[in-house]
Amino acid sequence: MRTITDEHLQAYQEGGCLQKLFDVIKEDPALSFEIRMNNKVMIYYHKDRILTISYCKGKPSIDTLSEKYYKNATPPSVSFEDGDLIQTLRDKSLLRQYFREAKRLVGSYKEGVEFEVQQNIALGNRSFSNRFVVVDMEWQLPQSDIKKEERISRTRIDLVVVDMKRNERGENDIYLGELKVGMDATDGKSGIVDHIKKTNKLICSPKACAVLRADVEGIIRQKAALGLLEGDYAGLNLSATPRMMLILACRGSKERQALEKQVEKEQDKAKASGMAMPLIVWHNVQIILDV
């Protein structure tokens, strides 16, 4: 289950040893704070993990950016080793320096507009007063305890979204959201039909549905306690079975028209195969200037 202990949670709050680190993360909209299994928190930048925080017996431990990002470059200069950890966690200037250097290395390693759009969607949907709330990014079903022949093909869900508007059964739907930016993202192994097939397997698995619902409940509770989600969630009645959501980001009317034609074809294919249809959400990534 994606959750952290109460002791770990309190370390990010007033007076905790991780409070300054948490403050620096919250002040940077490019960083994403995500709760993971085994009492870990992972910090992402453009889908890439740049910091992992563990907490055991009252002490934190930090894993920094993977060496793959700086094989031919200089690694981040800020140390989180045991001898330096406490001093680093007390110094916001050092913490900001680490993230600045780590983000630069990730940016040099790979580029992609989809990563930034995904993170901005998560950032813009953190309030329970909105229609949708993004509670997690990059969700994946743990399968180590499932027999190999019964495992579902590995897939990561871009965004786990809760609908604040109740459905006809009086439940708040949980959506497994996949983001596609432009026409280049609709074909091949990462295309729409492939996404629908993989997500449908998760939806048809009682174990996957139960794990997801438990994760969503825990993440909402703990992120709300940390102030990462705003408003009152006490009235939520989460559905037992998730639904699919396709978030289609376009850059102008011509691209939207082309995407609409492509999506219609893909939906017909999925329908012919007896798969549930996803909710389609459109997002215009153009920036309109105004004064």
Task: Describe it.
The protein is of the alpha+beta class. It has two domains: 6-109; 113-284. It is 36% helix and 22% strand. The chain is built from eight helices and nine strands. It has helices at residues 6-11, 19-27, 82-90, 92-109, 113-124, 192-203, 206-225, 253-272; strands spanning 31-36, 40-45, 48-56, 59-63, 132-139, 157-163, 174-181, 243-250, 279-284. Strands 5-6-7-8-9 form a five-stranded mixed sheet, with helices on both faces. β8, α8 (253-272) and β9 (279-284) form a beta-alpha-beta unit. The protein is globular. 32% of the residues are buried.
Give the radius of gyration.
20 Å
Number of helices: 8
Element string (H = helix, E = strand): HHEEEEHHHEEEHHEHE
Strand arrangement, largest sheet? 5-6-7-8-9
**How much helix, percentage-wise, in residues?**
25-40%
Which term fits the overall shape? globular
Low-confidence stretches: none
Count of domains: 2
What's the N-to-C terminus distance? Answer: 46 Å
Largest sheet: 5 strands, mixed
How much of the sequence is in beta strands? Answer: 15-25%
Number of strands: 9
Report the structural category. alpha+beta
Average pLDDT for all residues: 90
